[in-house]
Amino acid sequence: MYILIHENDHIIMFGDDSTEHISDSLNIDNQYIKRIISIDYLEKFEEYKKDKMLIEAAGGLILNKQNELLMIFRRGFWDMPKGKLDVGESLDECAVREVMEETGLTHIVLKQKLQTTYHTYPFQNKIVLKPSHWYLMKFEGSENPIPQTEEDITEIKWVNKSEAIQLLPLMYASIREMVVKYYLN
Predict the structure, then answer these.
(1) How far apart are CA 77 and CA 180, in angstroms?
(2) How many CB atoms lie within 10 A of CB 31?
(3) Strand (E) or helix (H) holding 163
(4) The CATH number of 53-184 is which of 3.90.79.10, 3.30.460.80, 3.30.70.260, 3.90.70.10?
(5) 126 CB-near residues (< 8 Å, 6+ apart)
(6) How does pLDDT run across 125-151, given as a tens digit for each residue?
(7) pLDDT per residue over 42-71, tens digit each?
(8) Is the dihedral of CA 101, 105, 108, 114 positive or negative?
(9) Residue 152: φ, ψ to 5°
(10) Domain residues of the chain, as ranges?
């Protein structure tokens, strides 16, 4: 078991001894990883979180009938639809709502929880730790996606595996992690 946190220019990995070579399977360059390997790595992770502002989010890795992956282009990077959890909302409800809002697609079927990724960013003199809870979803409709421009989404497209490989350098690190682990492998 491990937890990866994508920070600006490096990755922090919390894990036990079994995670020593996990970066190889995720195509992560070892020079960018700071490892915190410990039997009590979950306690170390809780310590890390203490001085961060936590903002929960959820989203989807969406596949269509042709097994193509839905990608959105936002703020100069290829991404997957996700967004902040509303008060009183469950994570899976949030994931489906955000996918529908950001893409305009309505025939979305939630399949299973995949994993939670973490990334940080500065906000109002604090560091935000954003856990994004990811779900596998299937699109079973025929409508075309419509970018939610008020969320800075300028393009949406379905990509096959070879196209996804070409887009990897233009993805946020946590999105790249998800695409490699759950779509390309």
Answers:
(1) 16
(2) 6
(3) helix 161-167
(4) 3.90.79.10
(5) 52, 53
(6) 999 999 999 999 999 999 999 999 999
(7) 898 899 999 999 999 999 999 999 999 999
(8) negative
(9) 65, 25
(10) 2-49, 53-184
